[in-house]
Write a structure and sequence with these properties.
Blueprint (H helix, E strand, L loop, with lengths): L2 H4 E7 L9 H13 L4 E6 L10 H12 L6 E5 L5 H12 L7 E4 L13 H10 L2 E5 L12 E5 L6 E4 L7 E4 H9 L16 H5 L4 E5 L25 E4 L2 E4 L9
Helix pairs in contact: 4-6
Length: 257
């Protein structure tokens, strides 16, 4: 199956101090298009976090800018209330069944792919075989902890480090794996990289393995444009919601006005 036909690209976006500028997501979409010129792109525009209302006016300007884009085969789904990554995915994947392709490329709005070669056809063929549920691209090149490495594999010539380490960098999932992964979040509102959910890959391991795309000599296939560091203070959402409770991600959080 052709990668452009097999993959839906899902990009979450949310309020930043640099809005209404769309430069960050422009770069991410552009890099996706360099690799997958015809794949469907679904942008999930989250609602405003309860403690970030000071960003609302800027964010509304940003959403207006997205609405005026002349992108091809791109859909922007705007959420009126804050759901975070897990909440938006729960709705579009599990409740509405919006994605119809067998694979999903998940990429946060400020972590674009770089222009080094990726064997997309090999990745598609590997995932469609059904034994591997997800293949992640590396940002830093740092190896997982030894106890998280579960060997290597070369399905369809794709070099993979098998691992139980999850990091929220760009990655391609089987749709059924991604749905099973998101089911584990329940009603929570959080990043996909959430310490309370670290064991999900292990829970799914018996049915689907998980791998890191590891070409030699350069493993890195994405980079960070640091949307939340544009104010000089790198920070994420003030709190996430897990198991019905607020957990403050950054103990010294202060609004970046």
């Amino acid at each position: 199956m052709n990668p452009n036909e097999a993959i839906t690209v899902v990009i979450p976006t949310s309020p930043l101090v640099c809005h209404p500028s769309a430069e960050i997501i422009d770069e991410t979409v552009s890099q996706v298009r360099w690799h997958l010129p015809d794949a469907k792109i679904l942008i999930l525009a989250d609602g405003v976090h309860p403690e970030e209302d000071y960003l609302r006016e800027r964010y509304e300007g940003y959403l207006d800018a997205l609405d005026k884009k002349d992108w091809t085969n791109v859909t922007v789904r705007v959420f009126n209330a804050w759901r975070h990554q897990s909440g938006m995915l729960r709705l579009v994947l599990l409740e509405e069944d919006t994605v119809k392709t067998p694979l999903v490329l998940w990429s946060e709005h400020d972590i674009p792919l770089n222009k080094l070669a990726i064997d997309w056809q090999g990745i598609v063929d590997t995932l469609l075989d059904g034994q591997i549920g997800g293949i992640r691209f590396e940002l830093t090149g740092d190896p997982p902890k030894c106890d998280m490495v579960k060997g290597t594999a070369y399905p369809h010539g794709i070099p993979l480090v098998l691992s139980t380490q999850f990091v929220n960098w760009p990655q391609v999932f089987r749709l059924d794996y991604f749905k099973a992964y998101m089911t584990k979040f329940g009603e929570g509102k959080s990043y996909l990289e959430c310490s309370e959910r670290d064991s999900i890959i292990i829970q799914l391991w018996e049915k689907w393995k998980y791998g890191i795309y590891s070409p030699s000599p350069e493993i890195r296939r994405c980079y960070h444009t640091h949307g939340r560091a544009r104010t000089g203070v790198e920070q994420g959402k003030p709190y996430i919601e897990i198991n019905g409770y607020h957990r403050y991600v950054y103990g010294s959080y202060k609004p970046s006005k």
